[in-house]
Design a protein that fits this description.
442 residues; alpha/beta; six-stranded mixed β-sheet; 17 strands; globular
C-alpha cells in the first residue's frame, strides 16, 4: 500500500508505546461532574436547568439558538448543585457550567430513544439527530458536526474523508477505537456521508497503525464506495487541510477558505462513532474515549469517560502520579493546552490528558535566531514563521500581516523544529489576536 503526505511537517517521536496496545476500558463513574456550557466552536449555550433540579443521563441542560452551536447534556443523573462560571480546559477561562452531584443511579432521560435504521433516515433527519445529540468534532477542534455536514448551496461535495491519522504524539484513543469499534465507526461514517450527500468515502490512517488499517479495511470491504488510504506518519498529518492535500492533491484556499471549497468534508473517527451511537441508541454525546498518559502517569490508559469528570479523577484511576509534574496538558503535546490544575473537567474535545516530567517537557530558555530556515521548511502551510515573530515582537502588526499569520493552523511544527527554542507559534497566535482586535474582533 502506497503512502501519501503533504509538504512540510516534522517527525516528532511518537511516544505512543505506553498505550497503543491498551484496550479501551470504562472509567469509574464519577461522584460529581462539572459540564461547561461552552465546549465547542461557536456560540455558548444558555442553561436550561437550575440549582436544586434533578437531571437524568442524556437530558439537555444547555442549548443556543445560534446557527453555529451544539447543545450539551447531563452525563450522570442526580442533582444540580450549581450553575456558575467554572474553569474550562480549552478556552483557559471560566465559563458558565452546570455542576451535578450524581445519585449513582444513572437513570436515562425518556427522550433518549434510537433514531431508527440508517436506510430509513433521510439527510435532513440525520442532521437533526446529529444536532440534537450535541455532536462536535472529537479530534480537538470541536466544530459542531451538524453545521459541517450542511454545506451551503453552490458548494457541491464529492468526497468525504474520515480522519484516523491521530498524528499527535502520545495519543492513542482514535487508534484503539478503530481497532476495537470499526463497525461502529463505519456506521457513523455512512451516516455522515448520507447527511452530506456524498457517495465516495475514504478512511485516512497513518501507516504506523497497521492493525487499525486492517480492522477498518475488513469492515469497509462490504461497501464498494468506501476505501482505506494509508498516509505517511508525519505531524500534522491529521490536520484536515494537510489530509486533503495528501490524499486528494487538492489545496484548500487561504482563509476564509474551507475544505468544502474544494469539495471535501473531513470528520474524525471518534465523531463518526458518536454519530452511530446517537442513531442506534439515541444517547447524545455524554462520554468520549481519551488517552491518559505521560512519563509521570503510573498506569497509562485509554479510557471511556463521562463528560465533566475531572482530570484529577481520571489520573487517579490510572494509578496516580509518580512525581512532581513539569507540565499538564489537555490534548497532545503539539497542539494541546497547558493546565495549571487537574481540577478541570473533561470536555467533548478532550482527546487526552498528558502529564510530563521535567525530562519530557521542553523548559529550555530561548536563544537568538540563527537564520537556519528550519521553521520555514517545517511549516505545513508554507508560511515564514520567523518573520511573523520578528514583527510581532516589535508590535509591527501591519508588517506581520504581510506574512499571513491568519493562515497558521497553530500546529507548533515551527517551534518544535527551532534550534533556538523560540516560541514561534505563540507569537503567531498573538499576531492573529492583535489583527482580529484591530478589525473589530475579540
Amino acid at each position: 500500500m502506497d503512502t501519501r503526505t503533504f509538504p512540510g511537517g516534522v517527525h516528532a517521536p511518537h511516544s505512543k508505546h505506553r498505550t497503543e496496545h491498551n484496550p479501551i476500558r470504562k472509567a469509574s463513574d464519577p461522584a460529581s461532574v462539572v459540564i461547561p456550557l461552552h465546549q465547542h466552536t461557536g456560540a455558548p449555550c444558555e442553561p436550561l436547568v437550575k440549582k436544586g433540579e434533578r437531571v437524568l443521563v442524556g437530558q439537555r441542560i444547555g442549548d443556543s439558538k445560534a446557527a453555529v452551536s451544539a447543545p450539551v447534556h447531563a452525563s450522570v443523573s442526580g442533582t444540580v448543585t450549581a450553575v456558575e462560571p467554572r474553569p474550562q480546559p480549552v478556552l483557559c477561562r471560566d465559563v458558565m457550567s452546570v455542576a451535578i452531584e450524581s445519585d449513582g443511579l444513572f437513570e436515562v432521560d425518556p427522550s433518549v430513544k434510537p433514531a431508527g435504521d440508517l436506510d430509513s433516515l433521510d439527510a435532513a433527519e440525520l442532521r437533526r439527530v446529529i444536532r440534537e445529540a450535541g455532536i462536535v468534532g472529537l479530534g480537538g477542534a470541536a466544530f459542531p458536526t451538524s453545521v459541517k455536514v450542511s454545506p451551503p448551496a453552490g458548494k457541491p461535495i464529492d468526497v468525504f474523508l474520515l480522519n484516523g491519522a491521530e498524528c499527535e504524539p502520545y495519543l492513542t484513543a482514535d487508534h484503539r477505537l478503530m481497532v476495537e469499534e470499526a463497525d461502529l465507526i463505519v456506521h457513523g461514517m455512512r451516516a455522515l456521508m448520507k447527511a452530506t450527500g456524498v457517495e465516495k468515502g475514504i478512511v485516512c490512517i497513518e501507516d504506523n497503525k497497521p492493525d487499525a488499517i486492517e480492522a477498518m479495511g475488513k469492515v469497509i470491504a462490504d461497501f464498494p464506495n468506501l476505501s482505506v488510504v494509508a498516509v505517511k506518519t508525519k505531524y500534522p498529518q491529521g490536520g484536515e487541510k494537510q489530509l486533503i492535500v495528501a490524499v486528494l492533491g487538492r489545496e484548500v484556499p487561504p482563509p476564509p477558505g474551507l475544505p468544502l471549497d474544494v469539495g471535501v468534508v473531513v470528520n474524525n473517527v471518534g465523531t463518526a462513532a458518536a454519530v452511530a451511537t446517537a442513531i442506534r441508541t439515541g444517547m447524545p454525546l455524554v462520554e468520549r474515549v481519551l488517552t491518559v498518559t505521560g512519563s509521570l502517569v503510573k498506569e497509562p490508559a485509554n479510557l471511556r469517560a463521562r463528560i465533566g469528570t475531572t482530570f484529577e479523577d481520571l489520573i487517579s484511576q490510572c494509578g496516580g502520579l509518580a512525581g512532581e509534574p513539569a507540565k499538564i496538558i489537555a490534548g497532545g503535546p503539539m497542539m494541546g493546552i497547558a493546565q495549571y490544575t487537574t481540577a478541570v473537567p473533561v470536555v467533548k474535545g478532550t482527546s487526552g490528558i498528558l502529564v510530563l516530567g521535567k525530562d519530557e517537557a521542553n523548559l529550555e530558555e530561548p536563544s537568538n535566531c540563527i537564520r537556519c530556515g528550519r521553521c520555514v521548511r517545517a511549516c505545513p502551510m508554507l508560511l515564514m514563521p520567523l518573520y511573523i515573530k520578528t514583527y510581532a515582537e516589535a508590535s509591527r502588526w501591519d508588517l506581520a500581516e504581510r506574512y499571513s499569520p491568519t493562515a497558521c493552523i497553530e500546529c507548533g511544527a515551527c517551534a518544535y523544529e527551532c534550534p533556538a527554542r523560540l516560541p514561534l507559534v505563540q507569537w503567531i497566535k498573538i499576531s492573529k489576536a492583535e489583527l482580529a482586535r484591530a478589525k473589530g474582533g475579540k
